[in-house]
Design brief:
Layout: H1 3-27, H2 31-46, H3 58-78, H4 97-109, H5 114-125, H6 130-137, H7 141-181
């Protein structure tokens, strides 16, 4: 790769690093994994930087590399996952409601298949149009729409299930306190 291409890549990374890291954080729940994902995607992109003729499309190219990398990781980890009857409690460090909502959303996104998660992230967080999302993921606009519809329905159902479980837990706790008081 020519020296000008190397400098161009370095400048691109410097200017777009924060936005790309935000995208990575939305693709994987752990912030450390998000940094690893971005670094892996940047390393893979660096070797092909001179082949990207239109540098204005570099973000889309890099997001695609991140999505593909995340999917590879997900497939590799899928075999190591062990189902449990009860999900662990999510810890919230700062206690603000916004952080709690974001943590819950990131946790709920974990129930989606990689393809569905990618569509939701690109459409709603990255605010890409249906056509842009379709181009970035290599699928038709109709597939993006139907995948998004199914993904949002799954997210709604998961949220309802968790809210119902939370209500039941609170009721059980109140009954336990009433028994202790009696």
């Amino acid at each position: 790769m020519a020296q000008s291409e190397v400098l161009g890549f370095e400048e691109y990374v410097r200017t777009r690093q924060e936005a790309l890291l935000r995208s990575a954080r939305r693709l994987v729940p752990d912030p450390v994994d998000a940094q690893d994902l971005l670094q892996t995607a940047l390393a893979r992109t660096y070797g092909r930087w001179d082949r990207i003729e239109d540098k204005s499309l570099a973000d889309a190219y890099l997001r695609r590399v991140m999505i593909n990398t995340r999917t590879e990781w997900w497939r590799a980890r899928k075999l190591d996952e062990v189902p449990t009857e009860q999900l662990p409690d999510a810890s919230i460090e700062d206690g603000t409601e916004q952080r709690a909502d974001r943590a819950l959303l990131m946790d709920i996104l974990g129930v989606l298949a990689p393809k569905q998660r990618s569509v939701v992230v690109l459409r709603h967080w990255e605010q890409m149009s249906t056509e842009e999302t379709a181009a970035a993921l290599g699928m038709s606009a109709g597939t993006v729409k139907s995948t998004l519809h199914r993904a949002l329905a799954r997210l709604r159902q998961e949220l309802e299930n968790r809210e119902a479980a939370g209500r039941e837990a609170r009721l059980a706790e109140e009954r336990g306190r009433e028994r202790c008081a009696a």
